[in-house]
Specification:
Blueprint: E1 18-26, E2 30-31, E3 39-47, E4 52-58, H1 61-68, E5 74-78, E6 81-84, E7 98-101
Parallel strand pairs: 4-7
Antiparallel strand pairs: 1-3, 1-5, 2-3, 3-4, 6-7
Protein name: Replication protein A 70 kDa DNA-binding subunit B/D first OB fold domain-containing protein
InterPro entries: NA-bd_OB-fold (IPR012340), RFA1B/D_OB_1st (IPR003871)
Pfam families: DUF223 (PF02721)
Length: 107
């Protein structure tokens, strides 16, 4: 038995967590409207129970994460920064209101 958390169990206050997810969608890299010169790319991930979360990568981390996390592959994601999501990002799952920022090239 594994001790991985499901997406709804992870909050901004969570520490030392691991979630098993499959990359189900990679969105195109976009320019930030709020910060000129800043780029971002979203990944939609799904856990083993079907819950979804949007993971964001920024600037120079986009290429590294994009090469390491392949579409339809399964990964263990641990301790990424988790923030409350704002309406401008959209919700990949109505039951989940947080956003993972996957900006660690060691993933």
């Amino acid at each position: 038995m594994d001790d991985h958390q499901l997406i709804p169990e992870i909050t901004p206050q969570s520490r030392a967590w691991t979630c098993k997810v499959t990359i189900i969608e990679k969105l195109n890299t976009r320019d930030s409207f709020q910060t000129p010169g800043k780029k971002y790319k979203a990944l939609i991930m799904q856990d083993t129970a079907g819950n979804k979360v949007k993971g964001m990568t920024y600037n120079e981390d986009i290429l590294v994460i994009d090469e390491r996390l392949q579409l339809h592959e399964t990964y263990l994601i641990s301790n990424a920064k988790v923030s409350p999501i704002t309406n401008s990002f959209g919700f990949p799952d109505d039951n989940y209101r947080y956003l993972q920022v996957d900006n660690d090239p060691r993933l």
